[in-house]
Amino acid sequence: MTFKKAHYHALRIAVCCFVAAGFWFSGTLPALAQDVAGSQDHPTVSRYKGSVIDAYETLQYDRFVLALGKPIRDASGNRVAAKNQELEGKVTRILYSTPGARSAFEIFRNYEMALQGAGFKVLYKCLPAECTNYYRFVVFPDTRFFSKISPRNSQFGLPKDTHYLAAKAATPNGNVYVSLMVAMDTRVNYPPATLLEVIETKEMDTGMVTVNADAIGEGLEAAGHMAIYGIHFDTGSATIKPESASTIAEIAKLLGQKPALKLLVVGHTDNQGVYDMNMDLSSRRAGSVVKALVAQGVAAGRLRAAGVGYLSPVASNDTEDGRAKNRRVELVKQ
Predict the structure, then answer these.
(1) What is the pTM of this model?
(2) Considering the chain, what is the average pLDDT of its residues?
(3) Superfamily classification of domain 213-333
(4) Rounded to whole angstroms, how far apart are CA atoms 192 and 54?
(5) 3 state SS of 117
(6) Cα–Cα distance for residue pair 203/122, rounded to 1 Å
C-alpha cells in the first residue's frame, strides 16, 4: 500500500491519536515520572497515555536488523531470529515505562490496533508463549542503550509477559518500519516497559567515488588485491544496483587490457546478522559481480567468486563507518 502525501499525514495522526487514547493511569508512577532530557515521541507513533520516556536516541543513518521470526538456535548455539531483515536509514529508539495498572498485553494491543488502523502491515508478531527472552537474545542484544538509564536500567533483564511485533508502512518518502516490544521484568516490581524503534529507510548518497581501470590495475600490481567500493547492493540483497555500472565497466576494461590477468572476486560483509547468513550473502554478491563481468565479455574462466562474510575486516565493526568499510568487493590476483 503506497500512501499519498496527505495519507502520510493521516498515518501519523491516526497512530498518535489511537495510542494516546489509552486510559489515564489512576494511580501514581514511580519517582522517575518525567521524560529523560532531550527526548520526545516519534511523530509517527506516540506513547501509550501516561507513559514516561526513560531512554531515547536517534541516529540519522544507521543499520538495523529487524527480527521477523521466532527465536531459534543457530549452528553455534546462539539464540537468533529464524528470519530477519536488514534495514538502513534513520533510527529512532525510545524506551517507555508504562502505567502499572495496565497489563503488557493491553498496552501491546493498543499499539497493534493503532498501527494497523494507520495502514501498517504487521510482518511478524509473537506473544508470551514463544517470546520468552526474546528481547535479550533476538530483538535488541546491544544493552549499552539501557546503561544510560538510572536507576531502572534492567526493565528487560529477565523479561516476562513479552509481546513483540514488526510492522511496515509505505510512504512517499520511503518505507517506515516499527519494531515494538512490551514486557515486564521478573526480578523487580516495575510496571510494563515498552521499547519502540522506528526505522525510516532512505538511500545513502552513493556514486561519490569512482575508480578507473588504471587505478585498479595499479592497486593489484602493488598489493595483489584491491578493495572496490563502487559496487552497491540493497541490504540483504545480491542484486547489483544500477549505479554500479561504471565500476563494473572499468573492471571489465582492465581485464580487456590485460588478457593474462585472472581474478578472484571476493565478497565481504560487516558482522551484523548471523555468521551463516553473511557467508551466503557475500558469496552470492561475488557471484553476481562475476556474472556482470561475463556479460561485459570477460571469459568466465578468468574469474572465480568467493565469499568470506565478516572474516576479514579492514576496520572495526563497532561503528557504522567501520562497517561501511568492511562491506566491499575485493579483487585478488590469481
Answers:
(1) 0.55
(2) 79
(3) OmpA-like domain (3.30.1330.60)
(4) 12
(5) helix
(6) 23
